[in-house]
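User: Could you write out the 3D structure of this protein bound to zinc ion? I've included everything you need below.
Assistant: Certainly. Input first, then the structure.
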Amino acid sequence: MNENPSANRSWMCLICGFIYEESKGMPDEGIAPGTSWEDVPMNWACPECGARKDDFEMVAL
Ligand SMILES: [Zn+2]
């Protein structure tokens, strides 16, 4: 996998459509802005539906 720290990647929950943007992070969940998807804890779950990271897919916005 080609990692590009400057890339603004987004990940979408395949269950409910919730979008996680790396540039914004998820401060309410304790995830700082700029946190790459790989650094999001494995036990993190979608705040909307509870889906796990496995249920997210990278999207280009
Ligand atoms: Zn979800």
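The mean pLDDT is 91.
User: Perfect, thank you.
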